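Appendix B. Raw example, untouched.
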Amino acid sequence: MLHYGFSNTIVSLISSFRSHGIHSVELNNQLSSYQPVLVGTPQGTKLGPILWLLYCNDLNIKGCSEVQYADDTIVYKAIKTTNNTDIGEAIEQAYVVD
């Protein structure tokens, strides 16, 4: 977000918004213990789609192609050899958070 010119205050506010969530799951009338939410934004917020667009807007993984539609991004590459290290490197590039 700093790359797009957002101030440190806004980045800190959004980071705080994202970092304090907890959730549990109910199955067969049994409630699990609460666990921290480590990724994403709360469902139904107006901020979620905006953050998604900011995150995926400049996603540029070397040697791979991508397709984006709505809230989904697919990264793909044709594999022409048995060397799969390229795929692992592409995944690492997509996962790095600045």
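End of appendix B.
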